[in-house]
Design goal:
18% of the residues lie in helices and 52% in strands. It has 60 residues and is of the alpha+beta class. A four-stranded mixed β-sheet has the order 3-2-1-4, covered by helices on one side. 10% of the residues are buried.
Length: 60
């Protein structure tokens, strides 16, 4: 039962998608704050094996 998290990162909010065995099990957003992001990860995907960031121009 592998869990994966995808973050679409922006300055104000992060859009989050959690998948488990290829199925999306949760989708939402949270403010771009490290403390809040860690809460989302702990609550929605405590067994996550991989986290992917989509950043676009923010990658630099």
């Amino acid at each position: 039962m592998a869990q994966y998290i995808g973050f679409d990162v922006s300055l104000k909010d992060n859009f989050v998608s959690v998948r488990e065995d290829g199925r999306r099990i949760w989708q939402g957003k949270c403010p771009s704050d490290p403390r809040l992001l860690s809460e989302v990860i702990r609550k929605r995907a405590p067994e996550a094996t991989q986290i992917v960031f989509e950043t676009g121009p923010l990658s630099i």
